[in-house]
Amino acid sequence: MGLHERRQREKESIRANILQEAFNLAKTEGWASLSIRKIADAIEYSAPVVYDHFENKEAILYEISLNGFHQLQIELLKAQKKHETPEDQLTAIVDAYWKFAFENKEYYQLMFGLGMQCSGKGLMKEEFSSFQDMLYESTLEIINKKGSNPDNACHSSHALFSAVHGLISIMMMRNADIPSTMNKTTLDETVSAFIKSL
């Protein structure tokens, strides 16, 4: 391996380490307490080394958000491919989204700006809308199958996204204040009622 390749590999390693340690800090201390200084201490380098790889903390958060959206997309596609009918696909997609949110709480909070400023605003339209797009496709297919008005697919799928994301957000951010009956069963009933209403 040449000197240039070795330096490039070292640079990529430090960059990956910065992202991993930033995420680890967020898991233990929360996103609000994250700072360049803490990241530098965690990777055992000086702050200027972090700035060599990322312009600022926002750039680090943006990169972590992208990682989160890519992981979510993988899980959604996996869930979708396991089923044939649009009804089963829709249910599986929503289930995978729910599971991802609660198994990856720190990612979800950062990706959607829960309790903090949303990272990469306006820069992740494709990643941000992947779940909504999948909901729309399944919704349209169900509507066409039932012979309903296809013009309603966009509005209906947005309504479902709002319901799913809203329930997750409430449970994630206000868990101590909400009744114990608001849980996955509520989500399942919402999806079932949604499919019947199309």
UniProtKB/TrEMBL annotation:
A GO molecular function annotation here is: DNA binding
Ranges annotated as DNA-binding: 35-54
For the keyword Membrane, the answer is: no
Q: Which domain of life is it from?
A: Bacteria
Q: Where in this chain does the record put each HTH tetR-type domain?
A: 12-72
Keyword terms, alphabetized: DNA-binding, Transcription, Transcription regulation
Q: Which Gene3D superfamilies does the record associate with it? A: Tetracycline Repressor, domain 2 (1.10.357.10)
Q: Does the keyword Cell cycle apply?
A: no
Q: Name one Pfam family in it.
A: TetR_C_33
Enumerate the PROSITE patterns for this protein: HTH_TETR_2
Q: Which InterPro entries match?
A: Homeodomain-like_sf, HTH-type_Tx_Regulator, HTH_TetR, MT1864/Rv1816-like_C, Tet_transcr_reg_TetR-rel_C_sf
Q: What is this protein called?
A: TetR family transcriptional regulator
> Which organism does this sequence originate in?
Epilithonimonas lactis
